[in-house]
Amino acid sequence: MIGNPRLNLLIATYGRSLAIALAVVGVLAVVATGWVVATPSTSTTTQQVNQETVSTETTTSAVVVEDGLWESGTRLVDSSVYTFAATPNLTITPRTAVASSEASVIHEVRIRHEAARDGSVFWEETVPQSRTEASVVDGVATSETTITVDDVRDQRAALEDDLVDVGSITTSIEVVVEYDTGTYADEQVLSSPVRMTEDAYWLEEPLEDSTDHSETATIEVQESPNAPAIGVLLLVAVLSFGGAAFVYTRGPIDVDAARRAVYEQRYAEWISRGSIPMWVGDYHVELDTLEDVVDVAIDTNERVVNDRQRDLFAVVNGNVVYYYSDRGQWEGTAWPKMEFGDQSSPVTGDSGATPVPPSIDGGSDPIGPPDDDLPDPDDDDAWERI
């Protein structure tokens, strides 16, 4: 029997129902674990799709027209400075990389003059140089435009004469890229100021740009199974099946004995172990439960004595004994409780009559001690020897 009286009483009272309930809980926990594993949670997130990048780089070049610093016919590419005498013509070559060979790309090159005073532009003029639909080869659209820089210098000089003491003139080269990739359509404006002196000119900034395109899409992401939930459910399943097996494998537990053990534990401070003589007290009052005996002990300020040999709980108050025993009345507790195994029925003769124990001298009483040999009820020592 289990060492916990309350658990013993629970199993004795609800053992079968408890085992079934625990088994059902275990099955449900296993099913829930499978469901959690098979149906992980999902979440939504945004993701960039249909990503495309359109980038443009512009190369400047000029061919030397007379011998001097360079030989005539020399081609200068992306030089940090060009001279009016050697390279009066500047070639602008924009290259636009697109994602699709079916894209449409237009390059427009123009000269821009701006007049500003105190940092504020009060006049501007744009002079187109070319507008070309560039052909796309291997994902790159290329075009060329040649600018006569001497003409640009003359235009700038005329503007400066008109605006003497009024404002400053800034001249820039602009490359406008218009594109349509089939998915995205937009334009890029590349601009660089052109610095000019009496003998030379150069671009102050590179003519390049890059544009990223994308679309935002909402997608559903499947998350990993909930490991903590799975662990808890598996633990519940193991504990439930273990509890069901534990309850099922317990031997039959007597409900009354289990309940009495609970009372013994609950009222242990009022119960003492001891031996109760058969003849103690003149009056013997049988009570229904151990709890009733404890109540009497509390009311009379006495202790309950537990005689284990007689399976008896009793309170002795003067000449009155209040007792409780599973064995019934006071006389039924006179002898220690003994357990016997199953015995076979007495052997009968052919006639079916039960044989009579042998007697002495053919007519005397059956063998055994006569009633007269029992000790005097008042002889304590004799009863103790028995």
Automatic annotation (TrEMBL):
Acidic residues bias: start-end ranges: 370-386
Domain of life of the native organism: Archaea
Annotated segments matching region Disordered: 336-386
InterPro entries (alphabetical): DUF5305
Alphabetic keyword roster: Membrane, Transmembrane, Transmembrane helix
TM annotation in the entry: 20-38, 229-249
Protein name: DUF5305 domain-containing protein
Source organism (scientific name): Halosolutus amylolyticus
